[in-house]
Amino acid sequence: MRLIVSDIPDDGLNMEADLQITVREDSEKENAHVSIDVHRYGKRVLIKGIAGMSSLFTCSRCLKQFYLPLRADFEEEFLPEPEVNKTVEQELTAEELESGFYSGDEINVEDLIREEMLLAVPMKPLCKPDCRGICPKCGKDLNDGPCGCKEDEIDSRLMPLKKIKESFKYRKE
Ligand SMILES: [Zn+2]
Ligand SMILES: [Zn+2]
Predict the structure, then answer these.
(1) Ligand 2 center from residue 63 Cα (angstroms)
(2) If pLDDT is split at 50, 70 and 90, which confidence band does 153 have?
(3) Fewest beta carbons within 10 Å, which of 54, 60, 125, 139?
(4) Which of 91-100, 131-140, 142-151 has the lowest mean pLDDT?
(5) In a 10 Å sphere around its CB, with 0-12 CB exposed, 13-18 middle and 19+ buried, how is residue 22 labelled?
(6) Alpha carbon of 61 to ligand 1 centroid (Å)
(7) What is the 117 CA–ligand 2 centroid distance (Å)?
(8) Would you tell me how many other CB atoms lie within 10 Å of the CB of residue 116?
(9) Its pTM surpasses 0.85
(10) Which of 30-44, 60-74, 89-103, 115-129 has the lowest mean pLDDT?
(11) Ligand with minimal distance to 124 CA
């Protein structure tokens, strides 16, 4: 989905589309529904929109695969890419730093949506906020109920505390 800058009418335009994008390196492309409002002021282009998709993730605690809904609300400004000499000899202005760039007469909307969607991806995706994960000892999915090794786990966690208490005892004596 490419936007031709010189084709944008003075009163702007609205586009609605389904794009095939991928938010994970290893994944198949998935469908993102996109709705954008585009305005052009001279060569400056403002794109406002929302995008939503459901992407298959692996839960970082229980390792189950699940579909995570992703949503992005964005407003992005695009300027024509600065001339080569300019980037070498002059620093970018504050306005340019906050903007995206387009080269030629085209803006690649797919790239924009992909970037916005990536921002919506959590660092550690969870199948549900209170996912209990899997037991590090026996590998049982603790969402299905507790496993037999829970007692040992608590003991080993208390060990360092016991040692600290013992060292305090020594100091008192
Ligand atoms: Zn999980
Ligand atoms: Zn276990």
Answers:
(1) 15
(2) very low
(3) 139
(4) 91-100
(5) middle
(6) 5
(7) 36
(8) 22
(9) no
(10) 89-103
(11) 1
